[in-house]
Structures are given as C-alpha cells and as structure tokens.
Amino acid sequence: MFYFGRYPLAYGCSAISGQWVLPENQNPFVQWGRLNFVNCSEAGELYDANSGVPVFPLFPNNDEFFSFLADNGISRESDNPGECPDEITDLAGSNDLANFILRDQNGNLIGFDEEDDALNAINNISNRTQESFGGTGQITFQQKLFGLDNQFIAGFSYNRGLVDFNSQVEITQLLPSRATTRSGVFVPEDATGLKGATTSWSGFFNNALDLTESVTFTVGGRFNSTRIRLQDSLGNAPELNGSHSYSRFNPSAGITWKINEKIGLYGGYSESARAPTIVELACADPDADCRLPNAFLADPELEQVVAESFEAGGRGKFGKTLSWNLGFFHTLNNNDIIFQSTGGATSNVGFFSNVGDTRRLGVEAGLDGIFLDDWRWFFRYSFVDATFQNNFFVSSPSHPNRVETIGADNEFSAVIPVEKGDRIPGIPQHSFKLGLEVPVTQKLTVGGDGNFNSGQYLRGDEGNLLSQTNPYFVMNLHANYKVTDHLTAFAIFQNLFDSNYETFGILGQANEVPGFQNFTDPRFLSPAAPFGGWVGLRYKL
User: Fold this and answer.
1) Around 224, how many Cα atoms within 13 Å sit in the side-chain half-sphere?
2) 55, 293, 356, 520 from 512: Cα distances, Å
3) How far apart are CA 99 and CA 133, in angstroms?
4) Between vectors from CA 71 to CA 69 and to CA 76, what angle results, nearest 5°?
5) Rounded to two decimals, what is the model's pTM?
6) SS3 11
7) Domain locations in the chain?
8) Which of 152, 333, 457, 527 qualifies as a FRET site for 162, CA 20 to 30 Å off?
9) Nearest CA to 473 among 491, 451, 456, 492?
C-alpha cells in the first residue's frame, strides 16, 4: 500500500515501514508492524501554513512495536472511551494474546536560567511493556419453557493483563530546532518503576423467551470480579504499592417486537461496570500529581464506574429500496473518572479522580436507500448531550478564569467551578455522515462520503466558560476495481478539499514555551490531517 499527501511543514522527515495485515474476516489473523519517526539532518524553523506563525516542534525519538494474535474467536476494540465493555456474550470459545512495547524520548524545558545554555531541558525517557491473555467459554440450551420457545446461555471469561513501566529523567540541552541532546546526567529520585497486574473473572447468563411469534423477552446478568496489583519495582516509591479489588453484578433486560415484516421495535435496560485502570490508580493523588505518560507517584483508591443505560428504538423498511433506523439512549455513569490537570505546558501533569455522575442522552438515526437500480446512498445522524450531573470544582491552572485557593495543607491550587448540566469536553453534540456509491462498470465502483461534527469544549474547560472549537465538514472519496475474484485494487482520498479544522482542544500554558512568553491565549488545538491518498491492492483468500 502506498500513501501520498501534503504536510504544511517547511522541514520534516518521517519513515514508516513494515505493516502487514491479513483481511479482518480471516481467522486466525496476525497483525504486526514497526513505526519509526526520523529526525531530519537539518530541522530548521517550521511555520504554520495557515497563519505564518513560527512553530517550534518537538522531535521525539519513538520506537514502537506492536503485535496481535487472535485464534478461534471474535476480537473487538472500541474507540469510544466512554463505553463500558461489558458485552461478551457473543463469544463462543476464544482465547487471545497481545503484547505492546513502546519506547520514547521527549524533551521538556525546565526552569533553568536562560543564560545557562549547557543543561536547560530534560528528556523523559520511558519503556513500557504490556501483555494480555484470556479466554471465554459458554454453553447454550434450547428447550421449551412454559410451553414457549426459549434459549438459555451461560458462560464464563478470564482475562489477565501485565504492565511493566520504567522511566527516568535526563538533564539535557534544548537545541534551536527544539530537539534535545543526550547528556548521560540523570535524576535518580525522579526515576519510576511500576509493575502492574489486572486479573478479571466473569460469569454471565442470558435467557431469551419468545412470548409470541413476534415478541421476545430477554433477561441476563454478568458478575465481574477484578483485582489490580501495583508494585514499585525500583524500591524508591513505596506509595505506588497497592492492591485493589472490584466486583459487581450487572443485570440487563429487554424486549423486541416484530410488528410486521417491515417494522420492528426494541427497548431495554442494562448496567455495566468498569474498574479503574492501572494508570488511573497510579496517578490518583492530588498531592502527588504525575506527568503523563512518564511518571506515576501514588496509588490511592478510586471507585469503579457504574453505567446505567436505557435504550429504545425501531428499524424497518419503506418499500423495497429504503430502510431506516431510529434509536434513543440514556446512560448515567456513576463515579465517573476524569483527569484533572495541575500544570504543564500542555496540561499533562495532574491526577485522576472520581467526580460524581455524568449523563449521556441522545438520538441516533439512519437511512439507507437505492435509486437508479444500483446507486446506493446512506445518511447517519447522532445527537449526544454529554453533561456533568454534579456541582464541583476542577483543577485547571491554565484557565484564564481560574480561581486561586489555599488548601488545608497551605498549598495553592487553581480551580474553576463546574455546574450540573455543563457539557463534557471533547464530545461534539451533533454529527452526521452521508455517502453515495456508484457502480461505473461491473468491475469499477466509486463513492464518496461527507462528515460533519459540531464544536466541542476544550479539556480543562469543564465549566464551559470559553468558546468551543469550530464545527467542520470534510469530504472523502474512494474507488475499487475488481481485478479478479480474489484481487481488488483500491484508492482512498481523505479531506478532498484540504479543509483546515481542529478535532480536539486542550488548555495549556503557551508562555512556558521559549519564544512564546508573550502569548496569552491558553488554547492548544489539534489540527486535522490535510489531504492525503492511499492506493493499494487487497487480496481475499
């Protein structure tokens, strides 16, 4: 597969090599790759292509290796961190093994005198190794219950994850290119070593009873037991040592009604629980804030997040060429966990904490149709009202409306108020997607889609006191040519009109960056990828 695109940088180099992926529907499958970011020999000064403002990027030295193996089962990943993954009843005898190794070196400016050109920065050097394995088994019974058709499923699952994390701080020199040197001078007291293990056992059941030929009632439950152990592997931070246990039974119930061959309705209630992660537990002390992802300092207790969800909706068809779906959902997360910043140029120093309840209320709708015999189109719309449900204060030292307070320990903190109903940062309220696919010939199809997202509040502005990011609309195109029954050539073009927009925002302290001491705007915005294209071949066995 080949990639081409445009990057608005005056200088810059990168190299990507070695990624091979078998088709997702093949089982077993193996995916692995290696990603290298390479510094240019002459970094130079970069400029933002839109505003002409000089930008001093950091050139991290990253070396990443990843692999994944799945055998005889189904593997799913969720890109929505708000979801609680508690739905594994569709797995029937599976086992998986995964590992992930990451090494990185990032340079951060430290508070030495500007006249001292020898050592005026630090390298945060870290190594992390992750391993996970587990299995699931279930049994299905199909027999009459009270004279009605009934299906009963029961099973169990086991999952274990291991983490080995080490980091050290090296005092170094910040170069004009904003790269850093290697000095060999380390700060022993800032070294961190953490080993963590997460063990989860689950038992579940699900029963589907056909009340009539068109109405089915479902009831189920899942008991989760999770134990998390953390150990200071260097011996210099005993406050990292800890053991945490979480358990809960999560019930669910639902009903479906097939009104006729073209219309069906559904409704249900479910609960799910998420135990805090090792990272959240190792970085949860307000008095011992940590720098993500380089240092962990303490291991206080956090409550598990419990989600209570209602959903209802329907799906159906109008004639032979138009189908629809409409759904409503309401999810209340109890003891939700957020990251509270206590400082840093990009607000990456802080701690995790439970902040009470959050709610996600919304609607999802979709249309799929065919016209001119074989032209296919679709439309998707989503409305999500994600809000905090409690009044509290959140740490936000980079916020222009922050309030300075003095705690019981006589330490200063900068906070902003959050009121019930304030929207959760990072979640757009409105989004829609529409697309069209046209068969040009029997072998060639072309299509396109457009994506819209409304603005979102910046992380660090949980009180919704500042403006949101701008809404945006982006167009993409794709084409497929069927060379043989097994071989297909494809082309993908993203951000067709090279639109400039931001996908995320966070509050930081720009005046801590050399050359930007007079900057007063605390907003850091993440720009979207510019126009890019891929061409390649896809082979199916």
Assistant:
1) 24
2) 14, 20, 33, 11
3) 9
4) 70
5) 0.73
6) coil
7) 47-99, 120-302
8) 333
9) 451
The H or E element spanning position 519 is none
Please list the alpha-helical segments (H only) found in 402-503: none
Residues in the chain, how many? Answer: 541
Q: What number of helices (H) and strands (E) belong to the chain?
A: 1, 31
367 φ, ψ to 5°?
-135, 140
Q: Is the dihedral of CA 229, 278, 242, 166 positive or negative?
A: positive
User: Look-up: residue for tokens 């055998």?
Assistant: 71
Sequence letter at residue 33: G
Report how far residue 421's alpha carbon sits from residue 65's, in angstroms, rounded to the nearest whole number.
42
Q: 391 is written with which tokens? A: 């009044």
Q: Provide Rg for the chain, Cα atoms.
A: 26
CA distance 402 to 411: 16
pLDDT tens track for 207-250: 999 999 999 999 999 999 999 999 988 887 788 888 999 999 99
pLDDT in tens, 341-400: 887 655 567 888 999 999 999 999 999 999 988 999 999 999 999 999 999 999 998 899
Query: For residue 288, what are its two tokens?
Result: 């011992």
Query: What single-letter amino acid sits at 270?
Result: S
Distance CA 494, CA 530 (A): 8
